[in-house]
Design brief:
- The protein is α/β, with parallel strands linked by helices.
- It is 39% helix and 21% strand.
- The protein has a six-stranded mixed β-sheet with strand order 6-7-8-3-9-10.
- Helix 3 runs parallel beside helix 5.
- Belongs to the ABC transporter superfamily.
- InterPro entries: AAA+_ATPase, ABC_transporter-like_ATP-bd, ABC_transpr_CbiO/EcfA_su, ECF_ABC_transporter_ATP-bd, P-loop_NTPase.
- It comes from Halobacillus litoralis.
- It is a peripheral membrane protein.
Length: 289
């Protein structure tokens, strides 16, 4: 098992946590995980590996069967979901699961109002979200008249208005075209720049490769790896055990036998840079010499 990264005092601390559903299924088993301020953390794993169950503990949607989780200074077992949701915002994979008001404007204000913020503070936060997501012309639109990508952005903006310390994005690129996926990448970077911890539950290896963020791998209810994406993706044993494939560009790069075996290439730009710097070696590989 790879060592955990992050040396700052953790904002989220998961200690020996297991969760057993009422039907007796153990969804996560003896998980230890610390997440510090300023981190972008991807939680990877195949379906049923436990990644979503784990993250739903962060805002109290689920509570540990055994073990303990603290968010900030709060023990999640002892706090109400409403209080935890002010610290951990969760954007669901399907925006229809959290979008229900008749206009975008009302949707953006709902979280602040629900947390009993003043009208002045609500207006200030909503205006900031409108500006960041460029939603000024959509405030009177019905969210359900928007396409899936636009609804997902409204859901993200409504979470941003509350301004929780942690933003969880559950499969943010699902159903997105290339433009939408790039937008998600830009939003993750924006959230980080604004001081948020970002937790990604995702199968999108390309997204993780572009971010080269800390990557936690779940398999059969257990955490089996925790390191930078470049290190995790280069570990064939871990990837095979979890049933995962690195980004296609990484597979392509590794197939060029003259590449530095100590480095993992995660993006098109990184391999293009290497090719420009090693033209002669590329020609030799291509000619079979």
């Amino acid at each position: 098992m790879l060592e955990e990264v992050g040396t700052m005092k953790p904002y989220i601390s998961v200690k020996n946590v297991s969760h057993v559903y009422p039907n007796g299924v153990t969804a996560i088993k003896d998980i230890n995980l610390d997440i510090s301020e300023g981190e972008v953390v991807a939680i990877l794993g195949s379906n049923g590996s436990g990644k979503t169950t784990l993250v739903k503990h962060f805002n109290g949607l689920l509570t540990p069967t055994t073990g303990e989780i603290t968010v900030g200074e709060l023990n999640t077992k002892k706090e109400r979901i409403s209080k935890l949701s002010s610290l951990v915002g969760y954007v669901f994979q399907n925006p229809n699961h959290q979008t229900f008001l008749p206009t975008v404007g009302k949707e953006l204000a709902y979280g602040c109002t629900n947390l009993k913020m003043s009208e002045e503070e609500t207006e200030e936060r909503v205006n900031k979200a409108i500006e960041l997501f460029d939603l000024g012309e959509r405030l009177e639109d019905n969210p359900f008249d928007l396409n899936s990508s636009q609804r997902k952005e409204v859901a993200m903006a409504s979470i941003m208005a509350v301004s929780p310390k942690v933003i969880v994005l559950d499969e943010p690129t699902t159903g997105q075209d290339h433009k939408g996926c790039k937008r998600v990448l830009d939003l993750v970077r924006m959230f980080k720049e604004h001081g948020h911890i970002v937790v990604l539950i995702t199968h999108d290896m390309h997204l993780i490769g572009e971010l080269n963020c800390r990557t936690v791998v779940m398999n059969q209810s257990e955490k089996i790896a925790d390191d930078q994406a470049s290190i995790v993706f280069s570990d064939k044993g871990i990837m095979e055990e979890a049933g995962l494939q690195p980004p296609q560009i990484t597979t392509f790069a590794n197939a060029l036998t003259k590449l530095d075996s100590n480095k993992t290439y995660l993006t098109v730009d990184s391999i293009l840079k290497w090719i420009k710097e090693n033209k002669e070696e590329v020609v030799q590989v291509g000619s079979g010499s």
